[in-house]
Amino acid sequence: MPAERIDGVAIAAKVRAKVAQDAEALKAKGVTPGLTVVLVGDDPASAFYVGAKEKACKEAGMNGETIRLPASTPEAELLAVIDKLNADPAVHGILVQMPVPKHIDAQKVIRRIDPMKDVDGFHPVNAGKVLIGDADGFAPCTPAGVQVMLQEAGVETSGKEAVILGRSTIVGKPMAALLIQSGKGADCTVTICHSRTKNLAEHTRRADILIAAIGKPEMVTADMVKPGAVVIDVGINRVDDASQKRGYRIVGDVKFDEVAARASKITPVPGGVGPMTIAMLLANTVRAAQLSLAGTPEGAR
Ligand SMILES: Nc1nc2c(c(=O)[nH]1)N[C@@H](CN(C=O)c1ccc(C(=O)N[C@@H](CCC(=O)O)C(=O)O)cc1)CN2
Fold first, then answer.
1. How far is the CA of 214 from the centre of ligand 1 (A)?
2. Residue 27 is a catalytic residue
3. 195 is in an annotated binding site
4. Whole-prediction pTM value?
5. What residues pair up with 191 in beta bridges, in sequence order?
6. What single DSSP character describes residue 113?
7. Would you give per-residue pLDDT tens digits along the chain (301 residues)?
């Protein structure tokens, strides 16, 4: 039997509906949740994602603003923009769209954002909180979205072998941190594989839950997957396709058709994890606004 498709668009819509309710409740208390996205340069994919974030904010009744800066913007100027946003009480969430141009040190930029406004969950304070299982922190949106998808799809995670392909700080590492916590949607035994992992397929074939986040188009094939596994595809790769109007198509890290024939549940690309990234960003921003009302907790920064 082919795998059940886990519908990221439908699950994201559910998350966004709850965010809209929470935003409404905050507005009744005089606070409109606000996200400001900073885009440096004119990468078309980044411009598309930033536009989608602004639109999603507005649809949820939140303030969504984008600051567009030229690719030549000096690092110091970007840091000054962040300082201003950190000091602005109407801005609850700040996000600098990645990647930034090469002359800018992304880590320096991330560290400049107030951790209480770091709705991307990239600041070391939030990374540390996610690692120690402190619920006060902001988890990065993509792995947080994967965890929600697993729960919404009724996937039992407790005691399961989860294998993550990719050790990025945005997906692989925080994904592992979330799945090893104790509690709902977690309690997994986690393996992270990466470019130096030997006998990759031996690891992936042990996975009850396989999460592919390596950025290599259709790299995961059916022979790498245990029959009945749950397969989550985080990859969003553009491959040339002259038959498409835009000249490319989007594929994941998983060879969908053959893996779907072997897995029990699978996420598609597009329409899987991608929409969850934006939904979780809105959820983090509403939470940042709620926390701003409650006041900064002890030791939060
Ligand atoms: N500061 C950040 N930068 C980046 C992040 C991030 O979480 N924070 N993630 C990615 C890009 N990204 C959001 O920013 C993102 C990527 C993809 C999608 C999405 O919904 N994709 C669609 C397909 C879209 C298409 O057709 O091109 C899908 O998968 O269905 C949303 C957000 C890197 N940068």
1. 15
2. no
3. no
4. 0.96
5. 163
6. S
7. 789 999 999 999 999 999 999 999 999 999 999 999 999 999 999 999 999 999 999 999 999 999 999 999 999 999 999 999 999 999 999 999 999 999 999 999 999 999 999 999 999 999 999 999 999 999 999 999 999 999 999 999 999 999 999 999 999 999 999 999 999 999 999 999 999 999 999 999 999 999 999 999 999 999 999 999 999 999 999 999 999 999 999 999 999 999 999 999 999 999 999 999 999 999 999 999 999 988 755 555 5
Ligand 1 atom, smallest distance to 120 CA: 8
Q: Residue ranges of the alpha helices (H) in 141-240?
A: 141-152, 172-180, 200-204
Instruction: Report the pocket of ligand 1 as residue ranges, CB < 6 Å.
Output: 48-49, 95-98, 120, 141-142, 236, 250, 269-271, 274-275, 277-278
243 assigned to a ligand binding site: no
What interface predicted TM-score (ipTM) does this complex get? 0.97
Give the count of domains, the chain: 2
N- to C-terminal Cα distance for the chain? 50
Q: Is residue 18 part of a domain?
A: no
Known binding residue 166? Answer is yes
Same domain, 99 and 159: no
Q: Do 168 and 104 share a structural domain? A: no
Question: Which stretches of the chain are DSSP H helices?
Answer: 8-28, 44-59, 75-87, 106-112, 124-132, 141-152, 172-180, 200-204, 256-260, 273-294
CATH number at residue 233: 3.40.50.720
For 105, the domain range is 29-114
